[in-house]
Amino acid sequence: MEIVDCCTDLSLITRNGIEGVIWRRSIPKFVYDSITSLSIIPMTEYRVESKPGDVGQHIIEFLEASGNKSSLALEWLAEDVNGLATEFASILSVENIRLRVEVVNDDACRKFHRDAVKARLICTYRGPGTEYKINDPNNGPEQTDTVPTGCPILLKGKSWPSHPSTGYPRQNDPWQLDRRATLLHRSPAIENKGTVRLIIVIDAAI
Fold first, then answer.
1. How far apart are CA 162 and CA 95, in angstroms?
2. Between β-strands 153-156 and 20-23, what pairing exists: parallel, antiparallel or unpaired?
3. Considering all CA atoms of the chain, what is the largest pairwise distance in Å, rounded to the nearest integer?
């Protein structure tokens, strides 16, 4: 896992041996406070295929349909998602992306997994972020960490064309690299805690 301080450094995901990249940042307090107080209905989901620069407008339409008025915070959120989608599209060399907006208050996707996509960008704007760990069959269970709220994480999926280069040879067979350490992730446990998460997920449109 790589931790970076600049959006463009998410491109490190293309390097062999790097399974995930987190953009470490803090969103403005007025945006955080506004998102925390948004009127959103748990267990709702919104999906759309779009040009990267248009996804922000989809976000605004989704939130305004839930009864939220236009504000500087929503404009910031729209521009932020536009920027993430544009960077994602550039890194994967695609023209269109798929945007998914989720509002959840349960324990969806509680099992550690690797997505059946080439790569996926996830950003939690409200509530606890995605949990992740390194699955290393040679060294046993690893510590589980949490992506900070507001910090995007870009993950390689099962369809990434190259295999992870963080593998380790099997005992007595140094050329067999079939027991590799991989990055897995899951949703945090929030059911019955009164917590509501607002998450955006960006994939490549195929």
1. 22
2. antiparallel
3. 64
Render pLDDT for 148-167 as a digit per residue (tens, 0 to 9): 999 999 999 999 986 544 44
- DSSP state, residue 161: S
Angle of CA points 135, 141, 146, to nearest 5°: 70
Among candidate residues 162, 164, 154, the one with its CA nearest the CA of residue 203: 154
Calculate the average pLDDT of the chain: 89
Tell the burial category of 140 from Cβ atoms under 10 Å away from its Cβ (0-12, 13-18, 19+): exposed
Collapsed DSSP state (helix, strand, coil) of residue 173: strand
| Other residues' Cβ atoms within 10 Å of the Cβ of residue 158 | 11
Non-local (6+) Cβ contacts of 202 within 8 A are 55, 84, 85, 88, 97, 98, 99, 100, 120, 121, 122
Q: Are 159 and 116 contacting, i.e. CB atoms less than 8 angstroms apart?
A: yes
Amino acid 143 reads: Q
In tens, the pLDDT along 42-52 reads 889 999 999 99
